[in-house]
Structure formats: structure tokens, C-alpha cells
Amino acid sequence: MLTRERTIEHLGVNIPLDIAVLTDRIRASIEAGRYETREARAVAKLARPGDVILEVGAGIGFLSCYCAKVAMASKVVAYEANPELLPVIRRLHDMNGVAVDVRNAILADRDGEAPFYIAAHFWGSTTRRTRRALAEISVPMTPVMSVMAEVRPDVVIIDIEGGEHDLISAIDALDARAVVMELHARVLRPDELNGVFTRMFALGYAYSCDVSGGPIVAFERIAPVRARTAGAA
């Protein structure tokens, strides 16, 4: 539903359409009701009211807003590597009256700085150098295990344009009830795609056929959390 203020309501979230980072392609996806719809539906099936949700790759803030406003999470922490998107995220959150802890960093296995490659369509920006990159910036890294210990999420959402393999590989143990992830087959090698599943299984998760669809894959925890032993892959 389009309003006078040039906003559109999508799955219960109001999205402003005058955001500078919205290319015609992204705006068309929002107006057609396709934007992150599969991710939101996966969250709707897995999240419970009162959950703590960690999102890695916040984009314009739609999904973190959905988690707070529609899925009724008690706390949402959202990480976004592209600093230019932070004011966009906060505007969308303010418009919808939600409070989300938004942080600018790349989750990794250590502290430091890492290159981040900006694409024409913000959803294509990535930690991996690609031919689509228009610019390279430096972004702070935060150890993912420190974040997991601090936030203690019930549900983790990951959409980081090919960075999912490196992120999952950096996780030693995870006690979230569910993980929703977009796999980017155009960026990851076949062995890396396989490695995501192998690592999730090793962490005690099962692939959820009922929730997964297309590039959106969901995992549900089936085994007690156990730290990775020294020297394990």
C-alpha cells in the first residue's frame, strides 16, 4: 500500500521510497512486494514473541524492523558493514517506531579492519572483491564469538553477499534455536557452499526443509552446543 509520503507498506513495515540508495531495480522489488519476502516468511515461521534476534547484514533495515515490529522480538541487534546505510536504517526504524541496536562492523574471527567493496546496488556490496565493485572502503571487524556471548540470540539472520562461509567458519559454538541464511551461489565456490552446510551440521543444526526455499536456507538446532576442538576444520 502506497501512502502520500511516498512510503510503501510491505509485510507490516513502512518503507520510504525516496531513499537515495534505492536503485530502480531495488525500488521495483519493494513495490512488487518481493523485497526480502522469503527471509521474512522464514523468520515468521521460526521466531517467537520475546526472542532475541541477531541480524548480520542489515541492508536498509527492513528485516530488523520486521523482527521488532511484526515478529515481536524483545531485542534486535543488527550489524551492517556499509556505513552509508546506517542513517537509512535508523530512518526506517524511526518511521516504524521500533528500537534496534544498529552497529557498523564486519563480524569475523578477530578484531581489526577489513576491506569492503561497494556495489551499485547496495545489496551486492560484499567483503569479497568482485567485478561489480565501484569502491573499496575499510570497515572495522568485531569477533563474532564475542558478539554471540554478549547478545545470546535465539535466532540469527545472515545475508552478507558471499561472506556467509567465512562467518560460519569463524563460529566455534552456537546455541541459537535457529539460523536463517541467504546463500549467494554466484559469489561462493561450490566447496564453500558445501562447507556452510558441513559447518552448520557440525555445530548441531539440521537443515529445515519446511522453512528453506531457493537461496534462503534455514537451520534448526537439534544437538547441545559444543565448542569446536583444537585443530578441527
Compile the SSE list and pairings.
Blueprint (H helix, E strand, L loop, with lengths): L6 E4 L2 E4 L7 H8 L5 H10 L5 E5 L5 H8 L5 E5 L6 H11 L4 E3 L2 E3 L3 E8 L13 E11 H8 L3 E4 L5 H6 L8 E5 L7 H13 L2 E3 L8 E6 L12
Parallel strand pairs: 3-4, 3-9, 4-5, 6-8, 9-10
Antiparallel strand pairs: 1-2, 7-8, 10-12, 11-12
Helix pairs in contact: 3-4
Kindly give the count of domains.
1
The CATH H-level superfamily is Vaccinia Virus protein VP39
Helix and strand run = EEHHEHEHEEEEHEHEHEE
Q: Strand arrangement, largest sheet? A: 5-4-3-9-10-12-11
- What is the rounded distance between the termini? 48 Å
**CATH level-two architecture:** 3-Layer(aba) Sandwich
Number of helices: 7
In which range does the helix fraction lie? Answer: 25-40%
Query: Which of globular, elongated, flat, extended, rod-shaped describes the shape?
Result: globular
CATH fold description:
Rossmann fold
Q: Name the poorly predicted regions.
A: 227-233
Main beta sheet strand tally, sense and closure: 7 strands, mixed
Mean pLDDT: 90
β-strand amount: 25-35%
What do these coordinates show?
This protein is α/β, with parallel strands linked by helices and 233 residues long. The protein has a single domain (7-221), classed as Vaccinia Virus protein VP39 (Rossmann fold). Helix content is 27%, strand content 26%. The protein has helices at residues 24-31, 37-46, 62-69, 86-96, 144-151, 164-169, 190-202, and strands spanning 7-10, 13-16, 52-56, 75-79, 101-103, 106-108, 112-119, 133-143, 155-158, 178-182, 205-207, 216-221. Strand 11 and strand 12 form a beta hairpin. Helix 3 (62-69) runs parallel beside helix 4 (86-96). The protein starts with 6 loop residues before the first strand and ends in a 12-residue tail after the last strand.
